[in-house]
Fold this protein.
Amino acid sequence: MPSPRVVHYLNQFFGGIGGEDKADTPIEVHLGALGPGRGLELQWAGAAHIVATIVGGDNFVATRATEAEPAIRAALQAHQPDVLVAGPAFNAGRYGLACGVACGVASELGIRHVTAMAAENPALAIYAKRLLTVPTGELASSMPRALPPLARLALKLARHEPLGSAAEEDFLPRGLRRDVWHAQTGAERAIALLKQRLAGEPFRSEMPIEQFAGVPPARALKTLGGARLAVVSTGGIVPSGNPDRLREYNSMTWKRYPIGDLARLEPGAWEPIHGGYDSTWAREDPNRVVPLDALRSLEREHVFAKLHDFYYVTVGVGTAVNNARRFGEEIARELHAADVQGVILTAT
Amino acid sequence: MAKEIERSGIPVAYVTTLTSLAEEIRANRIVAGVRIPHPLGNPTLTPDNERSLRTAVTRRALQVLTEAVDGPKVFQVDHPGAH
Protein backbone atom coordinates (compact mmCIF):
# COMPACT_ATOMS: atom_id res chain seq x y z
CA MET A 1 0.00 0.00 0.00
CA PRO A 2 1.47 3.37 -0.96
CA SER A 3 2.60 5.42 1.99
CA PRO A 4 -0.16 7.79 3.17
CA ARG A 5 -0.14 11.37 1.89
CA VAL A 6 -0.49 14.11 4.47
CA VAL A 7 -1.24 17.79 4.03
CA HIS A 8 -0.21 19.97 6.96
CA TYR A 9 -1.84 23.29 7.92
CA LEU A 10 0.34 25.83 9.75
CA ASN A 11 0.03 29.50 10.64
CA GLN A 12 2.36 32.23 9.43
CA PHE A 13 4.72 31.83 12.40
CA PHE A 14 5.23 28.06 12.27
CA GLY A 15 5.24 28.27 8.49
CA GLY A 16 8.31 30.47 8.72
CA ILE A 17 6.79 33.60 7.15
CA GLY A 18 6.87 35.87 10.15
CA GLY A 19 5.27 36.81 13.41
CA GLU A 20 2.25 38.86 14.39
CA ASP A 21 3.15 41.39 11.70
CA LYS A 22 2.46 38.72 9.08
CA ALA A 23 -0.86 37.57 10.53
CA ASP A 24 -2.77 38.91 7.52
CA THR A 25 -0.92 36.72 5.04
CA PRO A 26 -3.37 34.98 2.71
CA ILE A 27 -3.16 31.24 2.06
CA GLU A 28 0.11 29.97 0.60
CA VAL A 29 0.85 26.40 -0.38
CA HIS A 30 4.35 24.92 -0.18
CA LEU A 31 5.43 21.51 -1.37
CA GLY A 32 6.69 19.18 1.33
CA ALA A 33 7.03 19.76 5.07
CA LEU A 34 7.81 22.98 6.92
CA GLY A 35 8.78 23.60 10.52
CA PRO A 36 6.88 21.28 12.86
CA GLY A 37 5.92 19.19 9.81
CA ARG A 38 9.48 17.98 9.66
CA GLY A 39 9.08 16.89 13.27
CA LEU A 40 5.97 14.90 12.29
CA GLU A 41 7.89 13.20 9.47
CA LEU A 42 10.63 12.22 11.92
CA GLN A 43 7.94 10.59 14.07
CA TRP A 44 6.55 8.70 11.09
CA ALA A 45 10.03 7.52 10.04
CA GLY A 46 8.97 7.07 6.46
CA ALA A 47 5.56 5.57 7.20
CA ALA A 48 3.89 8.75 5.89
CA HIS A 49 5.04 11.94 4.29
CA ILE A 50 3.78 15.52 3.98
CA VAL A 51 3.09 16.27 0.34
CA ALA A 52 2.19 19.90 0.91
CA THR A 53 1.97 22.48 3.67
CA ILE A 54 -0.81 25.08 3.66
CA VAL A 55 0.24 28.25 5.46
CA GLY A 56 -2.29 30.89 6.48
CA GLY A 57 -2.04 34.12 8.43
CA ASP A 58 -3.97 33.80 11.68
CA ASN A 59 -5.92 37.02 11.15
CA PHE A 60 -6.66 36.22 7.54
CA VAL A 61 -8.08 32.77 8.16
CA ALA A 62 -9.80 33.53 11.46
CA THR A 63 -11.54 36.68 10.24
CA ARG A 64 -11.80 36.19 6.46
CA ALA A 65 -12.76 32.55 6.37
CA THR A 66 -14.93 33.08 3.25
CA GLU A 67 -11.79 33.97 1.33
CA ALA A 68 -9.53 31.45 3.02
CA GLU A 69 -11.80 28.44 2.57
CA PRO A 70 -11.74 28.32 -1.24
CA ALA A 71 -7.94 28.51 -1.22
CA ILE A 72 -7.69 25.72 1.34
CA ARG A 73 -10.19 23.67 -0.64
CA ALA A 74 -8.18 24.12 -3.84
CA ALA A 75 -4.99 22.99 -2.10
CA LEU A 76 -6.64 19.89 -0.63
CA GLN A 77 -8.24 18.98 -3.95
CA ALA A 78 -4.92 19.42 -5.74
CA HIS A 79 -2.97 17.26 -3.30
CA GLN A 80 -5.58 14.62 -2.39
CA PRO A 81 -4.21 13.79 1.07
CA ASP A 82 -5.27 10.80 3.17
CA VAL A 83 -5.32 13.11 6.18
CA LEU A 84 -5.06 16.82 6.99
CA VAL A 85 -3.06 17.69 10.11
CA ALA A 86 -3.65 21.20 11.50
CA GLY A 87 -1.39 22.83 14.09
CA PRO A 88 -0.42 22.28 16.90
CA ALA A 89 -1.99 25.60 17.87
CA PHE A 90 -1.34 25.35 21.64
CA ASN A 91 -3.29 28.15 23.32
CA ALA A 92 -3.37 30.55 20.38
CA GLY A 93 -7.05 31.35 19.86
CA ARG A 94 -6.91 32.65 16.27
CA TYR A 95 -4.64 29.80 15.23
CA GLY A 96 -7.07 27.38 16.86
CA LEU A 97 -9.94 28.95 14.92
CA ALA A 98 -7.91 28.73 11.73
CA CYS A 99 -7.29 25.02 12.39
CA GLY A 100 -11.03 24.65 12.84
CA VAL A 101 -11.64 26.35 9.49
CA ALA A 102 -9.08 24.17 7.70
CA CYS A 103 -10.49 20.98 9.22
CA GLY A 104 -13.98 22.11 8.31
CA VAL A 105 -12.98 22.34 4.66
CA ALA A 106 -11.37 18.89 4.85
CA SER A 107 -14.57 17.54 6.36
CA GLU A 108 -16.64 18.92 3.49
CA LEU A 109 -14.32 17.15 1.04
CA GLY A 110 -14.55 13.89 2.96
CA ILE A 111 -10.90 14.09 4.00
CA ARG A 112 -10.05 12.88 7.49
CA HIS A 113 -8.48 15.46 9.74
CA VAL A 114 -6.83 15.89 13.11
CA THR A 115 -5.65 18.94 14.98
CA ALA A 116 -3.86 19.68 18.24
CA MET A 117 -4.27 22.49 20.73
CA ALA A 118 -4.48 23.16 24.45
CA ALA A 119 -7.73 22.08 26.10
CA GLU A 120 -8.32 25.71 27.11
CA ASN A 121 -7.95 27.09 23.60
CA PRO A 122 -10.99 29.36 23.07
CA ALA A 123 -11.48 27.89 19.59
CA LEU A 124 -12.70 24.69 21.22
CA ALA A 125 -15.71 26.50 22.62
CA ILE A 126 -16.88 26.68 19.02
CA TYR A 127 -15.27 23.67 17.39
CA ALA A 128 -14.88 20.97 20.06
CA LYS A 129 -17.55 18.65 18.70
CA ARG A 130 -16.41 18.95 15.09
CA LEU A 131 -12.70 18.44 15.56
CA LEU A 132 -10.55 15.49 16.50
CA THR A 133 -8.16 17.29 18.84
CA VAL A 134 -4.99 16.05 20.51
CA PRO A 135 -4.52 18.00 23.76
CA THR A 136 -1.25 19.88 24.05
CA GLY A 137 0.42 22.16 26.57
CA GLU A 138 -0.33 25.87 26.42
CA LEU A 139 3.07 27.03 25.20
CA ALA A 140 4.84 26.33 21.93
CA SER A 141 7.78 25.13 24.00
CA SER A 142 5.75 21.97 24.59
CA MET A 143 6.02 21.10 20.88
CA PRO A 144 8.28 18.03 21.48
CA ARG A 145 5.54 16.52 23.68
CA ALA A 146 2.78 17.43 21.25
CA LEU A 147 4.16 15.86 18.09
CA PRO A 148 4.29 12.14 18.96
CA PRO A 149 0.57 11.73 19.84
CA LEU A 150 -0.42 13.95 16.90
CA ALA A 151 1.72 11.91 14.51
CA ARG A 152 0.33 8.64 15.87
CA LEU A 153 -3.30 9.67 15.47
CA ALA A 154 -2.67 11.19 12.04
CA LEU A 155 -1.16 7.92 10.85
CA LYS A 156 -4.09 5.88 12.14
CA LEU A 157 -6.51 8.16 10.35
CA ALA A 158 -4.46 8.17 7.15
CA ARG A 159 -4.47 4.37 7.18
CA HIS A 160 -8.24 4.35 7.78
CA GLU A 161 -7.76 2.39 10.98
CA PRO A 162 -10.71 2.49 13.40
CA LEU A 163 -10.32 4.73 16.41
CA GLY A 164 -11.08 3.78 19.99
CA SER A 165 -12.55 6.09 22.60
CA ALA A 166 -11.10 9.48 23.47
CA ALA A 167 -9.55 8.00 26.61
CA GLU A 168 -7.93 5.12 24.72
CA GLU A 169 -6.54 7.22 21.88
CA ASP A 170 -5.69 10.36 23.88
CA PHE A 171 -7.77 12.95 22.13
CA LEU A 172 -10.21 15.41 23.69
CA PRO A 173 -13.70 13.94 24.22
CA ARG A 174 -16.19 15.24 21.71
CA GLY A 175 -19.30 14.10 23.51
CA LEU A 176 -19.97 11.42 20.92
CA ARG A 177 -21.27 8.06 22.11
CA ARG A 178 -20.91 4.71 20.41
CA ASP A 179 -22.35 1.45 21.61
CA VAL A 180 -19.70 -1.15 22.39
CA TRP A 181 -19.85 -4.65 23.78
CA HIS A 182 -18.32 -5.27 27.19
CA ALA A 183 -17.29 -8.70 28.50
CA GLN A 184 -19.01 -7.84 31.80
CA THR A 185 -22.52 -6.51 32.26
CA GLY A 186 -23.12 -2.98 33.52
CA ALA A 187 -24.18 -4.39 36.89
CA GLU A 188 -20.91 -6.29 37.24
CA ARG A 189 -18.86 -3.25 36.27
CA ALA A 190 -20.83 -0.99 38.62
CA ILE A 191 -20.17 -3.31 41.59
CA ALA A 192 -16.49 -3.57 40.68
CA LEU A 193 -16.27 0.23 40.56
CA LEU A 194 -18.08 0.55 43.90
CA LYS A 195 -15.69 -1.95 45.52
CA GLN A 196 -12.73 0.08 44.27
CA ARG A 197 -14.17 3.27 45.73
CA LEU A 198 -15.02 1.66 49.08
CA ALA A 199 -11.47 0.31 49.32
CA GLY A 200 -10.08 3.75 48.55
CA GLU A 201 -8.41 2.40 45.42
CA PRO A 202 -7.90 4.45 42.28
CA PHE A 203 -10.94 4.19 40.05
CA ARG A 204 -12.12 5.51 36.73
CA SER A 205 -15.66 6.58 35.97
CA GLU A 206 -16.99 5.28 32.67
CA MET A 207 -18.84 8.54 32.22
CA PRO A 208 -17.49 11.54 34.13
CA ILE A 209 -20.27 13.74 35.45
CA GLU A 210 -20.16 17.33 34.25
CA GLN A 211 -19.24 19.78 36.98
CA PHE A 212 -21.43 22.82 36.95
CA ALA A 213 -20.14 26.30 37.55
CA GLY A 214 -22.17 28.55 39.81
CA VAL A 215 -23.63 31.94 39.01
CA PRO A 216 -23.30 34.88 41.37
CA PRO A 217 -26.71 35.25 43.02
CA ALA A 218 -28.62 38.18 41.60
CA ARG A 219 -29.18 40.91 44.16
CA ALA A 220 -32.18 40.23 46.38
CA LEU A 221 -35.19 42.49 45.90
CA LYS A 222 -35.35 45.12 48.63
CA THR A 223 -39.07 44.74 48.91
CA LEU A 224 -41.60 42.55 47.24
CA GLY A 225 -44.42 45.06 47.44
CA GLY A 226 -43.37 47.12 44.45
CA ALA A 227 -42.01 44.28 42.37
CA ARG A 228 -43.05 43.13 38.91
CA LEU A 229 -42.64 39.37 38.74
CA ALA A 230 -42.91 36.69 36.08
CA VAL A 231 -43.64 32.98 36.15
CA VAL A 232 -41.60 30.56 34.05
CA SER A 233 -41.85 26.77 33.98
CA THR A 234 -40.03 23.75 32.58
CA GLY A 235 -43.06 21.63 33.41
CA GLY A 236 -44.52 21.79 29.91
CA ILE A 237 -47.99 23.20 30.71
CA VAL A 238 -49.31 24.53 27.41
CA PRO A 239 -52.69 25.52 25.95
CA SER A 240 -54.80 22.45 25.21
CA GLY A 241 -53.93 20.83 21.93
CA ASN A 242 -50.34 22.15 22.15
CA PRO A 243 -50.97 24.58 19.27
CA ASP A 244 -47.30 25.46 18.89
CA ARG A 245 -46.21 21.83 18.94
CA LEU A 246 -43.77 22.17 21.82
CA ARG A 247 -41.71 18.98 22.07
CA GLU A 248 -42.37 16.67 25.03
CA TYR A 249 -38.68 16.01 25.59
CA ASN A 250 -35.38 17.37 24.29
CA SER A 251 -36.79 20.83 23.81
CA MET A 252 -35.54 22.95 20.98
CA THR A 253 -37.50 26.02 21.92
CA TRP A 254 -39.60 27.82 24.52
CA LYS A 255 -42.93 29.57 24.15
CA ARG A 256 -44.70 32.41 25.86
CA TYR A 257 -48.44 32.60 26.42
CA PRO A 258 -50.57 35.53 27.53
CA ILE A 259 -52.01 35.15 31.02
CA GLY A 260 -52.79 38.81 31.66
CA ASP A 261 -56.53 38.28 32.02
CA LEU A 262 -56.46 34.85 33.61
CA ALA A 263 -57.19 34.24 37.29
CA ARG A 264 -55.92 30.68 37.09
CA LEU A 265 -55.05 27.99 34.56
CA GLU A 266 -58.36 26.28 33.80
CA PRO A 267 -58.18 22.50 33.61
CA GLY A 268 -59.16 21.56 30.10
CA ALA A 269 -57.86 24.84 28.67
CA TRP A 270 -54.26 23.90 29.52
CA GLU A 271 -52.54 20.56 29.45
CA PRO A 272 -49.18 19.01 30.41
CA ILE A 273 -47.15 17.72 27.49
CA HIS A 274 -43.96 16.94 29.43
CA GLY A 275 -42.72 13.42 28.70
CA GLY A 276 -40.81 13.07 31.96
CA TYR A 277 -43.40 12.90 34.71
CA ASP A 278 -46.81 11.33 35.35
CA SER A 279 -49.08 14.10 34.14
CA THR A 280 -52.30 12.89 35.78
CA TRP A 281 -52.32 15.48 38.56
CA ALA A 282 -51.11 18.33 36.36
CA ARG A 283 -53.86 17.56 33.87
CA GLU A 284 -56.44 17.62 36.65
CA ASP A 285 -55.17 20.97 37.83
CA PRO A 286 -52.40 22.73 35.89
CA ASN A 287 -51.98 25.20 38.75
CA ARG A 288 -50.17 22.40 40.57
CA VAL A 289 -47.25 23.02 38.22
CA VAL A 290 -47.77 26.68 37.28
CA PRO A 291 -49.33 28.27 40.40
CA LEU A 292 -51.23 31.02 38.63
CA ASP A 293 -54.16 30.91 41.04
CA ALA A 294 -51.84 31.37 44.02
CA LEU A 295 -49.90 34.14 42.27
CA ARG A 296 -53.12 36.03 41.50
CA SER A 297 -54.27 35.71 45.07
CA LEU A 298 -50.94 37.05 46.34
CA GLU A 299 -51.10 39.83 43.73
CA ARG A 300 -54.58 40.81 44.95
CA GLU A 301 -53.20 40.85 48.48
CA HIS A 302 -50.50 43.26 47.23
CA VAL A 303 -47.72 40.92 48.32
CA PHE A 304 -46.17 42.01 45.05
CA ALA A 305 -47.11 44.68 42.53
CA LYS A 306 -47.80 42.97 39.22
CA LEU A 307 -47.52 39.62 37.48
CA HIS A 308 -46.02 39.91 33.99
CA ASP A 309 -48.61 39.37 31.28
CA PHE A 310 -46.74 36.48 29.71
CA TYR A 311 -45.89 33.06 31.08
CA TYR A 312 -42.85 31.28 29.64
CA VAL A 313 -42.73 27.54 29.17
CA THR A 314 -40.56 24.76 27.90
CA VAL A 315 -40.12 21.07 28.68
CA GLY A 316 -37.18 20.13 30.87
CA VAL A 317 -36.76 16.40 30.31
CA GLY A 318 -33.96 15.36 27.95
CA THR A 319 -33.24 18.96 27.06
CA ALA A 320 -29.61 19.74 26.23
CA VAL A 321 -27.89 21.99 28.73
CA ASN A 322 -26.71 24.30 25.96
CA ASN A 323 -30.25 24.75 24.72
CA ALA A 324 -31.49 25.39 28.22
CA ARG A 325 -28.82 28.07 28.63
CA ARG A 326 -29.93 29.69 25.40
CA PHE A 327 -33.59 29.63 26.46
CA GLY A 328 -32.62 31.28 29.73
CA GLU A 329 -30.69 34.02 27.92
CA GLU A 330 -33.51 34.67 25.47
CA ILE A 331 -36.22 34.73 28.12
CA ALA A 332 -34.04 36.98 30.28
CA ARG A 333 -33.88 39.50 27.42
CA GLU A 334 -37.67 39.66 27.22
CA LEU A 335 -37.96 39.97 30.97
CA HIS A 336 -35.49 42.85 31.05
CA ALA A 337 -37.34 44.59 28.23
CA ALA A 338 -40.54 44.28 30.28
CA ASP A 339 -38.84 45.48 33.44
CA VAL A 340 -39.51 42.25 35.32
CA GLN A 341 -37.63 42.24 38.60
CA GLY A 342 -38.02 38.70 39.87
CA VAL A 343 -38.96 35.27 38.59
CA ILE A 344 -40.56 32.19 40.03
CA LEU A 345 -39.45 29.22 37.95
CA THR A 346 -41.21 25.92 38.56
CA ALA A 347 -39.77 22.56 37.61
CA THR A 348 -41.09 19.01 37.63
CA MET B 1 -32.47 28.37 32.52
CA ALA B 2 -32.76 29.65 36.09
CA LYS B 3 -29.02 30.35 36.18
CA GLU B 4 -29.01 32.26 32.92
CA ILE B 5 -31.94 34.43 34.02
CA GLU B 6 -30.08 34.99 37.27
CA ARG B 7 -26.86 35.77 35.45
CA SER B 8 -28.67 38.62 33.71
CA GLY B 9 -29.40 40.14 37.13
CA ILE B 10 -32.95 38.98 37.87
CA PRO B 11 -33.28 36.89 41.05
CA VAL B 12 -35.00 33.55 40.49
CA ALA B 13 -36.88 31.44 43.01
CA TYR B 14 -36.46 27.94 41.62
CA VAL B 15 -39.22 25.63 42.84
CA THR B 16 -38.28 21.98 42.45
CA THR B 17 -38.64 18.69 44.25
CA LEU B 18 -35.14 17.63 43.22
CA THR B 19 -33.41 20.05 45.56
CA SER B 20 -30.14 18.11 45.79
CA LEU B 21 -29.86 18.11 42.00
CA ALA B 22 -30.56 21.84 41.97
CA GLU B 23 -27.76 22.35 44.52
CA GLU B 24 -25.34 20.32 42.45
CA ILE B 25 -26.15 22.29 39.33
CA ARG B 26 -25.68 25.34 41.55
CA ALA B 27 -28.93 27.17 41.20
CA ASN B 28 -29.03 29.80 43.93
CA ARG B 29 -32.44 30.22 45.51
CA ILE B 30 -33.97 26.76 45.60
CA VAL B 31 -37.45 26.26 47.04
CA ALA B 32 -38.50 22.71 47.87
CA GLY B 33 -41.51 21.57 45.86
CA VAL B 34 -43.96 18.92 47.06
CA ARG B 35 -43.62 16.06 44.54
CA ILE B 36 -42.30 15.85 41.01
CA PRO B 37 -45.70 15.54 39.30
CA HIS B 38 -47.19 18.29 41.43
CA PRO B 39 -44.51 20.58 42.81
CA LEU B 40 -47.12 23.09 43.91
CA GLY B 41 -49.95 20.77 44.81
CA ASN B 42 -50.93 17.79 46.89
CA PRO B 43 -53.89 15.79 45.56
CA THR B 44 -54.25 13.91 48.85
CA LEU B 45 -55.49 17.09 50.51
CA THR B 46 -58.95 18.59 50.22
CA PRO B 47 -59.16 21.27 47.51
CA ASP B 48 -59.19 24.07 50.10
CA ASN B 49 -56.19 22.70 51.96
CA GLU B 50 -54.37 22.17 48.69
CA ARG B 51 -55.01 25.77 47.66
CA SER B 52 -53.71 26.89 51.00
CA LEU B 53 -50.56 24.77 50.56
CA ARG B 54 -50.00 26.15 47.09
CA THR B 55 -50.34 29.70 48.30
CA ALA B 56 -47.90 28.99 51.15
CA VAL B 57 -45.24 27.53 48.86
CA THR B 58 -45.70 30.32 46.32
CA ARG B 59 -45.57 32.98 49.04
CA ARG B 60 -42.34 31.44 50.38
CA ALA B 61 -40.86 31.35 46.87
CA LEU B 62 -41.62 35.04 46.40
CA GLN B 63 -40.18 35.92 49.80
CA VAL B 64 -36.99 34.10 48.90
CA LEU B 65 -36.48 36.71 46.18
CA THR B 66 -35.91 39.28 48.93
CA GLU B 67 -33.36 37.14 50.77
CA ALA B 68 -29.64 37.53 50.16
CA VAL B 69 -27.80 34.29 49.51
CA ASP B 70 -24.11 33.54 48.97
CA GLY B 71 -24.65 30.53 46.79
CA PRO B 72 -26.98 27.55 46.42
CA LYS B 73 -29.43 27.42 49.30
CA VAL B 74 -32.48 25.24 49.77
CA PHE B 75 -35.55 26.78 51.38
CA GLN B 76 -38.04 24.33 52.86
CA VAL B 77 -41.70 25.21 53.29
CA ASP B 78 -43.36 24.29 56.52
CA HIS B 79 -47.02 23.74 55.84
CA PRO B 80 -49.35 20.80 56.23
CA GLY B 81 -49.05 18.58 53.18
CA ALA B 82 -45.77 20.10 51.98
CA HIS B 83 -43.82 16.87 52.46
In short: The CA atoms of residues 282 and 288 of chain A lie 6 Å apart. The first strand of chain A starts at residue 5 and ends at 11. Chain A touches chain B through 59 residues (CB under 8 Å).
